[in-house]
Amino acid sequence: MLTSGPEPAAGPPPSGVGVVAKGVRRTFGPVEAVRGIDLTAAPGEVTALVGPNGAGKTTLLLVLATLLVPDAGEVRVAGFDPVREPDEVRARMGWSPDVFGLYDNLTGREYLEFVGEAYRLGRARARTRAGELLELARLPEFADRPVHTMSRGQKQRLGLARALVHEPQVLLLDEPASGLDPRSRVELRELLRHLAGTGTAVVVSSHLLGDLEELADRVVFVDRGATVGEHRLDQLPAGAQLRPWRIRALDNAALLVALDRHAYNHDGPHAGGVDVRLASDEAAAALLAGLIGDGVPVISCQPLGGALEAAYLQLTEQGR
Amino acid sequence: MTGAGIATVARQEFRLRIRAGRWKVLLGVFFAILLAFTALLRAGLGQLASDELPYKGTILYGGLMLFVLGLALLVVPALAAQSVNGDRERGTLATLQVTRLTAADITLGKFAAAWGTALVFLAMTFPLVAYAMTQGGVPLGRVIVVTVVLALLLGTVCAVSLWLSSVLSRTTTSGVLAYLAVFALTIGTLITFGLVTAVTTETYTASVGGVDCFPACDPGPRQTYTATRARTDRTWVLLAPNPFVVLADAAPQLPDERRDADDRSQIRARDLDPLGQIGGVVRGLRDTRLGEGRLQTDADSEPDAVWPTGLAINVALGTAALWLTTRRLRTPSRNLPKGQRVA
Ligand SMILES: Nc1ncnc2c1ncn2[C@@H]1O[C@H](COP(=O)(O)OP(=O)(O)OP(=O)(O)O)[C@@H](O)[C@H]1O
Ligand SMILES: [Mg+2]
Question: Is A111 within 8 Å of chain B by CB?
Answer without folding.
Answer: no
